[in-house]
Amino acid sequence: MRCARVLLVVFLLAVLGVLYVRQHSLSLKLTQRLDELERTIVLAEEELDSIEIDIARLTGFCRLDSFYAAAMRLPAGASSPAVARAEMAGGGSMQPTQQPGSRRGSEIAAAGAGN
Amino acid sequence: MRSEGGRFRLAVSALLFCWLVLFGVVAWHQLVRGSHHRHQAEVQHGVRVSLPAPRGRMFDRLGRPLATNRSVSSIRILPQYAKDKDTLAAILAGFGFAERRTIRAELMRRKRHFWFRRNVPVQLADSLRRVVTRRGYSNCTLVDDDRRRIYPFGASCATVTGFLGEECGLAGLEYQFDSILRGRPGWRLLQKDALGYSHPYPSYPTVEPVPGADLYLTLDIDIQAICQQALEERVRATGALKGAAVVMEPGSGRILAVAEWPTYDPAAATTAERERHRCTAVSDVFEPGSVFKLVVMATALESPNAAELVARRYDVSSGFITIGKYKIRDAHNHGVLDFDGLMVMSSNPGCAMLSMQLDPEQYYQIARALGFGSALGVGLPDERSGTLDRPERLGTLRFANIAFGQGLTTTLLQLCAAYNCVASDGEFWRPYLIDSVCQNGRVIQRNRPVRVRRALRPETARRLKDIMEKVVTEGTGTPAAVPGVTVCGKTGTAQKTEPGGGYSNTRSRMSFVGFLPKEAPRYCIAVMVDEPKTDRFASTVAGPVFREIGWNLLRLERMRQQTEVWAAVGGVRPVGAKDPTVLAATTRVGR
Predict the structure, then answer these.
(1) Number of H helices and number of E strands within chain B?
(2) Percentage of chain A surpassing pLDDT 90?
(3) Is B290 a catalytic residue?
(4) Which of the given ranges, A93-97, B388-392, B512-516, B583-587, has the highest pLDDT on average?
(5) For residues B584 and B437, what is the distance between their CA atoms, to the nearest angstrom?
(6) Torsion sign over Cα B312, B317, B322, B327
(7) Do A62 and B202 count as a contact with CB atoms less than 8 A apart?
(8) C-alpha separations of B535 from A29, A102, B237, B509, B524 in Å
(9) pTM score, two decimals?
(10) Which residue of B has its CA nearest to A65?
(11) Of B552, B556, B557, B560, which to mutate for an interface test with A (greatest number of A Cβ within 10 Å)?
């Protein structure tokens, strides 16, 4: 009877020890996972940030200006001053030759540069 | 002989004593030496790592980032611990860092720890970390998390944002506001296991880093780009050394743009000449030339005998006047001029004649009130104050020279602030560049427009506006006219001094400072082009830059208004409505 009681105590202590080790290991894993998640969030925020920067760049006045200047088949280097002169002279259509977005910017730029 | 009971009591007492001693030692170690043992354990089982603070970012007035941070990785190698350098070279070559042979040669050459690559994309570095761990090279290939400063709009506002060195800002706002941008680093204790790997553990102490404060500027990156584009075109066309422009908002003093050309890429700033790191508009002082005639005209209008001075005719038909043994000349013969004509035709002898009728003390007070002779404190490093001599140091000739902008120095920003004062009906507004400072989304400081003083009476400012309008419609500033709006401004051609004394006949600085529209000014623009090779007059060098900037500012304004209208109707473009950019490109200003 006494032996059984001692064995039970030893068994319970062993269970307690295993549970502690498991909890410790789980705690480490969860902390690591939390760190990874935090890192992922930071990276995702940075990715979002860079997309917003790209949008800001693409919709910036000078970029759009040169985009439409190219679409209007003016030389690639001529942007607003050329547009201004054309407008002030009252000549030429100020509409892009195609709908915006129907051609890639590089194609438009290439087409403009050739004229 | 002791009895059995006595021996038993003695044994129990001895045991009890031992237990008490043991308990006492344990208590002493726990209670008295506890912190020491804890520290020993931490040193043995833990490793303290530093947590760098994210550096504060910079934004323009619409919240677009001008300087921000990106997570990157850095790779360090300890070649002395590599079990096979050839295999390690093959692993690294597999990630595309360089050819295997090159990397191997580098590993063989190096004997100690070195930075193999920095600014490596995080995803690539994570893959490398997994591979080196799997193949047993993690002891000699260390992949660290790092951060890199990026400037999304590159050279557009490099002289304002400045750039970052290894640890601190080296130019621009990065340098000036380094202490508040850098934040405070934290640290964390990691648990070290038997194999030497470290793991974060929740109960271990962590001190979170305090991120640096963000700066919100009054700059508008679109306006900045417009100015830079106009300057680049003109500097290239005229073969000038450089050009600079400042755009300010009348009635508030907000600086909307501080641009220059040529500039540098802040991501590769160390390869650029050091001269380029300075912001020309605030750090370069120069003799302003005829744009300074504004001060003499303002002094005349504010003087007690203003009515007499305004009614007078100024005979400059000889093309020069003589003061002592010196002659002050005009480039062209202007005949007899009225008061307005002095500024409209930019007559140097005429302004010199006018200056002789003025009180030097009053001129000095007005020049100071318009912001000359003292730094304006916009927050950029190396801001210069220029020179403005006290009236008692001015003889007749010096004062006559000052009347057309020689013998004193100013910055382009001071000129812009002075004209901004006229545009604001005589009120001098403090120019400012930092709108607010925020930390963790909380505003810790906000700058409001500050009306410093009334420098000129409203009627003086209105009269000056009328005169400056004539400069653009019928005088020297006609190339600066913007179609559809009334522009006020003044040209300035300032000869540069020669090293041996005297003024150069070939080298000069051309400037144009003005504002638009006259009725309710929204933009005050100052332009300076340094040493153009193809032209001799500011009207044909700086005037067109002003015109292009002004024209594009109005187009930008129209484009934004249209976008706001669409946003107000639910963000959906009404059927049949044109794209705002098309409208911007097709709308003729003022019609």
Answers:
(1) 20, 22
(2) 24
(3) yes
(4) B512-516
(5) 33
(6) positive
(7) no
(8) 72, 43, 10, 11, 25
(9) 0.80
(10) B585
(11) B552
